[in-house]
Q: What sequence folds into this?
């Protein structure tokens, strides 16, 4: 009896969340998968023709956009890590009584609508606006310089919007690190830098992994930064924008679904490689 | 670089800079909440006024969607955080069949483009005959939030020191007591962080909500539409008010902690070291 | 040793959650089965409730944002007047941000033959045609539209997408032309080719709307969009594609070109007539609007009734209400696009004169400008052209595919 109970407990814990995901995610996605293999149109209807050829087709047509999106997402992940790690470290180790308050401060801007935040950035970063206009007036920038509607600006927007996704998991992992472990290291004649790289950083790795995943994965499929900050410039079109258009304008549901799944598969592949490198034992206890 | 310089100037300075960076568009929002534009667009400064802070309360076309979004965010955060934490607990503590499949189930929602998630969910509603509205939005938000919660809480749970729970048992605590008095407080920062993330995701969701909303209007739906014509300055006023409330909340928290002394600090383990 | 014990702690906690019963396989299955059933029931429950509930109390109308008058309380005076007059309550929802996006949210229901949530919707001309051809719109009973019959202007009736107004009546309309700041361009812009001048590389705004862009390109090649063949479309697309690949377009905008044009990030852009009127009044008086020499596309949004809408009668009443000059004037004074109702420009002018007499020069100036802008002039009508009539889904897809290549600069 006890044995049976023990075996069932994990399943019971899983039940509500997994059940929810199965019903409201897996089932609809399965339908989409089937849709990708169909041919037809909105007016004529769709027939399942097992059209696996759609996959190489969309990869061929939009492969460069997929690469671009992955590139943007990677840059975003690296940048958010570079900015977020010192930030999380400072709050966790030097925050003291202000710790919780600081975490709240970090996430507070993100309770304001994304659209409002991004539009205001667009205002700040416009060619002759608050930032660049001032710099141009001071003669520090060439008058033809522009930031918006360039790849750099889209990466900027992505970085800004994903920063809390990196900072929060990092903070959570860093805050857990027992100071006494570090003390022990320095007692054993490690200097501060060594203590960091040999003790603190490895212990914070689950946070790094979590933050990277939470940033990279959604960033690849993002379309909204390219829309608002990137002004839908063809230079910055990401795979998410194409899927939007294929789905809504061109009404090519099979192609949209197929491209969506290529995105999913590609991202999962990269995630798999990443977790293999970092070591899955870091991910789970 | 001496430790002193690092901790006294560089790190806090960097943190301050990052916070300023995070708040930059918010500051613009607050400044323009005092603007009095004549037309639809709130992009050029046309005069100072406090009117927006007065008229916003009667603008039910703005406050209505805001309340709807808040309600959905709170409810979906609570449920998704609960579900996600349970999953994270089971994944980090147990060996069971189907781990790999479960991991896949957790990660794929984050990778799938929102429009695919949204549209496929809509076909589910249509085939069930479920009318779209608040309940369907809620279901969708809980769905996409679970993954984010699991990943965040897991970061906290990995390397969790079981010896603490053992100690509790040694002191004759039973299952629930051990969980609530020892385990839960230690993983709470992770749960809280996950909750904050889920809340931020829910209150801002556009695409998935669009397909499950029917004729319910959430704030992102409204503001996305309005942004194409011109966001009224009352919206800035509303955002600024929220900010003020959040700030006050935080200030009260800091003040309360100061009064309570060291007891307010979280995450300090009171058991022996050896965390592996 | 501790493994076994600590698991049983949590197990016991979970057990306690389930009423302290030891869990056997059977009861586990029973519970999950029950749970699944409960969930399924819960999801069909709203449907059942909706069917037995108090029923509809409001007319559901989906429209574009900021397309109606709004007072300081966020209410819509014209709609309130309608409710007062007819007793019909209206649930006005700004649900449409994009024709295709909105259509995507109601299409599954329409395809399944269900009732959608809406009684009245406001699609653009070409979307009316698409929906009508798929049988997704109710036919209009003109005997129920006396105001429309009496007051609808000629330019607002019998248009290419619905020649007998069987499915739609005009809501508001306008021109898609070019807006530019002569100070920044250094010269006047008179044609679409001027917009593609390499001198303005990277500072020109395109539209993300396929029809607007293709029409402008076609007209600049001397081809009327209504007569365009697929080969013509390809020629037009090539012109746009070359420009896109050369980096001519800073971006492909929706409504949000407005602030970029106003603050000078764009020196010239494809733009809507009504917007530029607003910009000149409020944000940047230097910007000008021009209909390119080859001609410009005209667009309009319409009121339609989706198939199987429940409050058909009431929907007709709402549609007819806007052809009464009084609410039509109030609406136009707020929105500033082309009105379909006769007599509105005169009334706005009268309001302007009254305001000036009362000393309110601000309102008077505004209304003076509006009175000239809310109805198309003969000159404008001579230079605007209809969208192409894309015969079937395949042709529409072909044109969309062509344009998708432009927006991604993927030759």
A:
């Amino acid at each position: 009896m006890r044995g049976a109970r023990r075996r069932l407990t994990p399943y019971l814990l899983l039940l509500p969340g997994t059940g929810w995901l199965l019903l409201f995610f897996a089932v609809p996605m399965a339908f989409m998968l089937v849709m990708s293999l169909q041919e037809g149109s909105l007016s004529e209807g769709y027939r399942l023709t097992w059209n696996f050829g759609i996959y190489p087709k969309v990869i061929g047509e939009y492969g460069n956009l997929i690469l671009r999106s992955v590139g943007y997402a990677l840059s975003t992940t690296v940048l958010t890590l570079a900015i977020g790690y010192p930030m999380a470290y400072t709050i966790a180790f030097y925050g003291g009584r202000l710790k919780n308050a600081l975490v709240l401060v970090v996430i507070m801007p993100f309770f304001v609508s994304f659209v409002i935040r991004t539009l205001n950035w667009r205002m700040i970063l416009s060619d002759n606006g608050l930032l660049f206009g001032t710099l141009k007036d001071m003669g520090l920038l060439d008058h033809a310089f522009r930031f918006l509607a360039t790849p750099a600006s889209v990466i900027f927007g992505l970085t800004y919007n994903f920063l809390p996704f990196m900072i929060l998991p990092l903070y959570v992992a860093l805050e857990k690190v027992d100071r006494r472990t570090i003390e022990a290291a320095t007692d054993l004649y490690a200097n501060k830098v060594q203590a960091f790289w040999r003790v603190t950083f490895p212990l914070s790795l689950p946070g790094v992994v979590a933050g990277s995943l939470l940033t990279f994965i959604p960033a690849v499929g993002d379309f909204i930064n390219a829309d608002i900050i990137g002004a839908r410039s063809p230079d910055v079109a990401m795979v998410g924008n194409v899927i939007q258009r294929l789905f809504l304008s061109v009404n090519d549901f099979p192609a949209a679904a197929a491209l969506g799944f290529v995105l999913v598969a590609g991202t999962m592949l990269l995630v798999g490689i990443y977790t293999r490198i970092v070591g899955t034992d870091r991910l789970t206890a | 670089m001496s430790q002193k310089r690092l901790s006294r100037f560089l790190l806090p300075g960097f943190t301050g800079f990052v916070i300023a960076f995070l708040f930059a568009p918010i500051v613009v929002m607050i400044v323009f909440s005092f603007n009095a534009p004549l037309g639809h667009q709130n992009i050029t400064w046309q005069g100072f006024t406090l009117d927006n802070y007065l008229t916003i309360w009667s603008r039910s076309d703005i406050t209505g969607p805001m309340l709807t979004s808040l309600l959905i965010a709170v409810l979906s955060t609570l449920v998704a955080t609960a579900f996600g934490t349970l999953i994270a607990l089971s994944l980090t503590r147990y060996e069971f069949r189907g781990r790999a499949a479960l991991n896949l189930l957790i990660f794929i929602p984050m990778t799938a483009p929102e429009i695919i998630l949204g549209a496929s969910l809509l076909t589910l509603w249509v085939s069930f005959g479920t009318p779209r509205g608040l309940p369907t939005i809620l279901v969708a938000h809980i769905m996409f939030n679970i993954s984010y919660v699991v990943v965040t809480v897991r970061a906290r749970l990995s390397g969790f020191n079981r010896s603490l729970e053992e100690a509790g048992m040694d002191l004759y605590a039973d299952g629930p007591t051990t969980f609530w008095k020892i385990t839960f407080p230690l993983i709470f920062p992770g749960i809280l962080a996950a909750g904050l993330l889920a809340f931020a995701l829910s209150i801002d969701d556009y695409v998935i909500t669009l397909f499950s909303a029917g004729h319910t209007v959430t704030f992102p739906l409204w503001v996305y539409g309005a942004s194409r014509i011109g966001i009224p300055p009352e919206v800035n006023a509303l955002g600024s008010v929220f900010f003020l409330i959040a700030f006050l909340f935080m200030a009260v928290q800091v003040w309360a902690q100061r009064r309570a002394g060291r007891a307010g600090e979280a995450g300090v383990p009171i058991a022996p070291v050896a965390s592996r | 040793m501790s493994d076994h014990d600590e698991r049983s702690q949590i197990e016991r906690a979970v057990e306690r959650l389930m009423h302290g019963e030891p869990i056997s396989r059977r009861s586990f299955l029973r519970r999950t089965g029950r749970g699944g059933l409960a969930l399924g029931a819960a999801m069909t429950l709203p449907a059942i409730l909706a069917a037995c509930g108090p029923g509809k109390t409001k007319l559901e109308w989906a429209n574009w944002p900021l397309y109606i008058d709004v007072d300081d309380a966020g209410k819509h005076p014209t709609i309130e007047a309608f409710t007062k007059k007819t007793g019909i309550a209206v649930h006005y929802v700004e649900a449409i941000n994009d024709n295709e996006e909105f259509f995507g949210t109601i299409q599954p229901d329409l395809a399944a033959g269900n009732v959608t949530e809406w009684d009245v919707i406001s699609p653009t001309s070409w979307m009316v045609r698409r929906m009508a051809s798929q049988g997704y719109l109710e036919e209009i009973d003109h005997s129920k539209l006396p105001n429309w019959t009496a007051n609808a202007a000629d330019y607002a009736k019998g248009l290419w997408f619905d020649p007998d107004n069987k499915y739609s009546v005009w809501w508001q309309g306008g021109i898609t032309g070019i807006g530019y700041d002569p100070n920044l361009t250094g010269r006047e812009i008179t044609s679409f080719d001027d917009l593609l001048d390499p001198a303005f590389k990277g500072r020109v705004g395109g539209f993300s709307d396929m029809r607007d862009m293709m029409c402008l390109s076609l007209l600049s090649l001397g081809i009327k969009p209504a007569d365009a063949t697929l080969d013509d479309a390809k020629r037009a697309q090539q012109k746009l594609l070359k420009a896109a690949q050369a980096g001519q377009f800073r971006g492909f905008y929706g409504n949000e070109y407005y602030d970029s044009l106003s603050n000078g990030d764009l020196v010239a852009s494809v733009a809507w007539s009504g917007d530029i009127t607003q910009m000149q009044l409020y944000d940047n008086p230097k910007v000008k609007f021009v209909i390119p020499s080859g001609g410009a596309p005209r667009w309009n949004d319409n009121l339609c009734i989706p198939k199987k809408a429940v409050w058909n009668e009431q929907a007709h009443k709402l549609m007819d209400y806007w052809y009464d000059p009084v609410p039509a004037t109030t609406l136009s004074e707020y929105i500033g696009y082309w009105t379909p109702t006769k007599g509105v420009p005169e009334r706005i002018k009268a309001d302007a004169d009254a305001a000036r007499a009362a000393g309110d020069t601000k309102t008077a100036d505004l209304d003076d400008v509006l009175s000239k802008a809310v109805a198309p002039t003969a000159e404008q009508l001579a230079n605007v052209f209809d969208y192409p009539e894309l015969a079937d889904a395949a042709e529409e897809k072909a044109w969309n595919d062509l344009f998708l290549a432009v927006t991604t600069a993927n030759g």
